[in-house]
Amino acid sequence: MAKTPQKLHIKTFGCQMNAYDSERMAEALAGHGYAPTDDPAEADLVILNTCHIREKAAEKVYSELGRVRTLKQARKARGLDTMIAVAGCVAQAEGSEILDRAQVVDLVVGPQSYHELPSLLGRVRDGKERVVATDFPAEDKFLSLPDRPVSRAQPSAFITVQEGCDKFCTFCVVPYTRGAEYSRPVAAILAEAERLARSGAREITLLGQNVNAYCGEGPDGRDWSLAKLLKRLAGVPEIERLRYTTSHPRDMDDDLIALHGDEPKLMPYLHLPFQAGSDRILHAMNRKHTAGDYAELVGRIRAARPDIALSTDIIVGFPGETGADFEDTLALVRRIGFARAFSFKYSARPGTPAASLPHQVPDKIARERLHILQSLLEDEARAFDAATVGRKLKVLFERQGRKPGQIAGRSPYLQAVHGDGPKDLIGQIVDVDIVSAGPNSLTGVIKSEFEWREPVQAAV
Ligand code: 5AD
Ligand code: SF4
∠ at Cα 420 (417, 422), nearest 5°? Predict the structure, then answer.
């Protein structure tokens, strides 16, 4: 029989939604006697929460499982049992194949079945069966997951409000791994946000694969848009900052754009992938927008909120991409000017339409293009950061910095900022004079009232 409390180690790959899911899994299992551990060698249960978005995802999971098998054997020599679960998008995509290829795995669980984890693990333990749970159940998993504990929210917290994707970009696995678009009801999101706010969260980032397609049931029985949801959340006094990610250009409606101008709690930063700058490639990607549409949209967003910083995702080497197509991507980057960007070499994902397109771009060319694009993006990012030197920015401090006496947080534009300051400022939004910009973060001098109020209080 297993001892209690059991130790749980979750290793997370991929996006913020996976990070959120890992937290929720840990919370769900906490109620069943599992306490988290950072040390996999101490874990009675190891969960790999996997990502399938790009290259060799499944291969990475199998090599990770090789390491886990060694751990399991070492624990067995100490007389300890270890359960191994594979969760996330590779679990969803590969299903029972994982059990066939990796004998060490006890459970394969897709993202829509996390609320069933305790009972699935029970089946594994009691029946000694190996279990695969990758159906898309009809019920809302979030309603069945336990409420989040109120004790320990991060200053900057995440809430998944929407999951799945109906857009079917031809390169992307998400519609297959995360399923159809689904939006959580407003009341559930609001309750979660209020709980997080009460336990210390000052910033909430709403997550969704297509977050701005959010269309959830409101308390009035009507469907609420993301703009309406954000407006409601802005009414929670403890929540001082709101963000959302990831958005699709086609779902940036007028209300959402206007909200960027009207709602000071909505941060002036927007992640808006465009993927490619050539209309021919955009068409082949099934993006249903042109480069011109994107630039026009950004113009409208900037008209509403002139200081907004943009970030984006870009793919190079999509099948059929010519040198001229790639130049169009560079041209769009120059035209918009990004504060930050994530760029990727196209990777053929099994089962997606683009994987079987002719004219796959040779790897060497795709690499060269990625290199050129990344150096342009890096220049833009540095220019953006350099332009904030000399400004005073409001920073939400989230943690201690690397050096003693330092604290670190984020500017409204999501730049990492660090400076010397007391730990008490963690969890607060403070005025900071930005004095220099390094490659990964800004350095600031903290200028809060707090700083000079302290000696006054001490003198009383
Ligand atoms: N190849 C390369 N990049 C991809 N992305 C999604 N699918 C692929 C793929 N097959 C990128 C897109 C997306 C980001 C999350 O990952 O740019 O916006
Ligand atoms: Fe990876 Fe996409 Fe799945 Fe997130 S949703 S884990 S990015 S495949």
Answer: 110
Tens digits of per-residue pLDDT, 213-232?
999 999 999 999 999 999 99
Ligand number, closest to the Cα atom of 343: 1
CA 172 to ligand 1 center in whole angstroms:
6
Burial of 238 (0-12, 13-18, 19+ CB in 10 A): middle
Q: What is the pLDDT of residues 9-54, one digit of tens each?
A: 999 998 899 999 999 999 889 989 999 999 999 999 999 999 998 8
- What confidence score (pLDDT) does residue 144 get? 73
Taking every pair of Cα atoms in the chain, the longest distance, rounded to a whole number of angstroms, is: 77
Centre of ligand 2 to C-alpha 164, Å, is 10
pLDDT for res 125: 86
- pLDDT for residue 55: 76
Cα angle: 10, vertex 244, 57; to 5 degrees: 40
Ramachandran bin of 390, using left for φ above 0, alpha for ψ from -120 to 50, beta for the remaining angles: left
Q: Taking CB atoms and a 6 Å cutoff, what residues make up the pocket around ligand 2?
A: 14-15, 17-18, 51-53, 88-89, 173-174, 177-178, 209
> By CB neighbour count within 10 A (0-12 exposed, 13-18 middle, 19+ buried), where does 460 fall?
exposed
Residue nearest (by alpha carbon) to ligand 1 atom 17:
313
Residue nearest to atom 14 of ligand 1 (CA): 313
**Residue 2 region by backbone torsions, left for phi larger than 0, else alpha for psi between -120 and 50, else beta:** beta
Which residue's alpha carbon is nearest to atom 1 within ligand 2? 51
Instruction: Name the phi and psi angles at 40, rounded to 5.
Output: -60, -25
Residue 287 to residue 334: CA distance in whole angstroms? 21
